[in-house]
Amino acid sequence: MTRIATRIAHLRAAGVSFVVELRAPLPRVLHWGEDLGELTGDGLAALGLTADAATLNSAPDEPRQFTVWPTEADGWSGTPAHQGHRAGTATAPRVVMTGAEERSGELVISLHDTDAALDITLTYRLDPSGVLGVGTSLSCPADAGDPVPYDLAATTALLPLPNRAQEILDFTGKWCRERSPQRGRLAFAGHVREVRRGKPGLDAPHLLTVGVPGFGFRTGEVWALHVGWSGNQRWLAERLPEGAGVHGGVLGGGELLAPGEIRLAPGGRYTAPECFFAWSGEGLDGLAGRFHTMIRARPGHPSTPRPLTLNTWEAVYFDHRPERLLALADEAAAVGVERLVLDDGWFLGRRDDTAGLGDWTVDPQMWPEGLTPLADRVHAHGMQFGLWVEPEMVNLDSRMAREHPEWILGPSAGVGPSARHQYVVNVAHERAFAHLLERLDTLVTEYGIDYLKWDHNRDLHEAVQRGAHGADRPGVHAQTQALYRLMDALRSRHPALEIESCSSGGGRVDLGVLARTDRVWASDCNDPVERQSIQRWTAQLLPPELVGAHVGGPRSHTTGRVADDSFRLITALFGHAGIEDDLTARTPAQRAALSRWAALYKEVRGLLHGGQVVRADLDDAATQLHGVVAPDAGAALYCWVRTEASVPGQSGRVRLPGLTPGRSYRVRIRTEAGLPGLHQVTGPGWCTVALDGWVPMPGTVLTGAGLPMPTLNPGQALLIEVAAQVAVN
């Protein structure tokens, strides 16, 4: 690796600068954030000169530096870049730079830990979207003299934050209430989130954001982190009283390793999950826009229109009578469904959730002719056929568990309590992996399966791989890598196959699994009140086309809340739309309403799945305005929502975000999904006119003055379409 000619590397993209001073013994980050422009030699020298902090009282005698690989050797008392030991020794890293190379949009720095005899490679990749990916690998040279393995305890990708970044936002949640925001002041301490579920979990941090106090959707400077990994994770934001060099704090993350999980013998290598960092000067929408742009540019990102989907779970549950499902397929085709997914209950011995997991063979008692009649009927209607599977789980009451108890991921002393009546399959076990790949490959081939809903319904507790004489080893890291290999192997055999990441709903939503899947199931909850929040915050990382959003029946399966048809339909429109309901039980009028909605979805999905997600900052938490705006700001679809009652009788003027002030637009209210109930005698005057057709509106009125919105009843939504006026010669 050749050394780069200049002392300072400056990566730039999409209004972002990342500047690193390549100095001995360790480089340091001079700047990460707003684009500094094309800095000259003098400008770069000035940036380096101003990176020297003061020497404080009762402190190290040299100014503290915050390097690219911070440890105590730098006088750094915060979270170190890595921790570990070699049989209780080599616990004080002494890291030096051995080389650096700058490529287009990428900086690769080679380091060496002289105390532990480790080689470290640190890769910074600034995506054209402005998202900075940080990759790390550690290796023990094959010719290392010490045969004792190095036990890696942790490695953390760390970037500096300025002093003004003092407010933090991340997420928590539970089943059917995923991605619930929580925010507060970042004090002089560490805000640390450790994920120990073997997956990101229903309470995943999702996107850890730190910003200037009061940042919102449309305003404020913010810095964010996502750990792109589907196993255990560690996230942190940290401020020390002495700062981090000239910076105020740090943002970082990585894999959470169990003791003894990674042991580097000579020739061994550990590659950490990639961490994604993003900066925005335009609030949370600016961050979301960067991630959406990056994700949409992936080579494997879905390129075809996202098919309207019907999933059978809330339609039939475990009642898999072929005649009932054939009738459901006919009704689905009639209303415009383009993909039918057969959910849980089709495989051997599966009458409820206590048995059958692991036996991925069609139950001949339930399906005497196999799934062929249903698959053929679905395909004959021109629809795609999908199937629910949960390959990583097993019921003890199953042929797999009885014949291969050694395939269960759990202690040699005996498995602990079940969760949802199930245990975890050790996918990293060579024979278990081969069995699962063969079963999935056979199913996809035999029935022409277009889509797998890949579920994962429990946390990984006591996730250890069984060894000889009870010498069990931690297994989450290997399990996660094996999952990736299994999905990759299946996709290589079936390149057109699409996969959904489902995990008790939204428990595995991360960029690691999305590198090999085509959408996520945001939540098992289809209640539109809950879904408005879940989808709003899932969009902080993922674009709408990757987020499954289904309309359920009038009474929510998970909350028992009854919601109007229009609210359920409009809410499900803003994602990869689908249906979770028994259409054979609906009236002709209800099916006709679904047909109109299906046609509307097909009309607007090009906009919804390719535009910019926007969300307004409103004073009344009971209301929301969100939408999607075309890349050229020439079209938009907005949703005005009220989830509960509140004191204000009037919303006042609400600005429509994302449009161009200097353009001329026209506005109308779309009625295909139905109209909301009003908590007023009549709506604002423009609404009455917009119900009958297009209303001309200058962009300055829409974006500057704003539109007075109607006061809706709780649990109601209104759909507003905006289009640029076409100039007439």
From TrEMBL:
<dbReference type="InterPro" id="IPR017853">
    <property type="entry name" value="GH"/>
</dbReference>
<dbReference type="InterPro" id="IPR038417">
    <property type="entry name" value="Alpga-gal_N_sf"/>
</dbReference>
<dbReference type="InterPro" id="IPR002252">
    <property type="entry name" value="Glyco_hydro_36"/>
</dbReference>
<keyword id="KW-0378">Hydrolase</keyword>
<dbReference type="InterPro" id="IPR031704">
    <property type="entry name" value="Glyco_hydro_36_N"/>
</dbReference>
<dbReference type="Pfam" id="PF02065">
    <property type="entry name" value="Melibiase"/>
</dbReference>
<dbReference type="Pfam" id="PF16875">
    <property type="entry name" value="Glyco_hydro_36N"/>
</dbReference>
<dbReference type="InterPro" id="IPR013785">
    <property type="entry name" value="Aldolase_TIM"/>
</dbReference>
<protein>
    <recommendedName>
        <fullName>alpha-galactosidase</fullName>
        <ecNumber>3.2.1.22</ecNumber>
    </recommendedName>
</protein>
<dbReference type="InterPro" id="IPR000111">
    <property type="entry name" value="Glyco_hydro_27/36_CS"/>
</dbReference>
<dbReference type="GO" id="GO:0004557">
    <property type="term" value="F:alpha-galactosidase activity"/>
</dbReference>
<dbReference type="InterPro" id="IPR050985">
    <property type="entry name" value="Alpha-glycosidase_related"/>
</dbReference>
<dbReference type="GO" id="GO:0016052">
    <property type="term" value="P:carbohydrate catabolic process"/>
</dbReference>
<feature type="domain" description="Glycosyl hydrolase family 36 N-terminal">
    <location>
        <begin position="26"/>
        <end position="265"/>
    </location>
</feature>
<keyword id="KW-0326">Glycosidase</keyword>
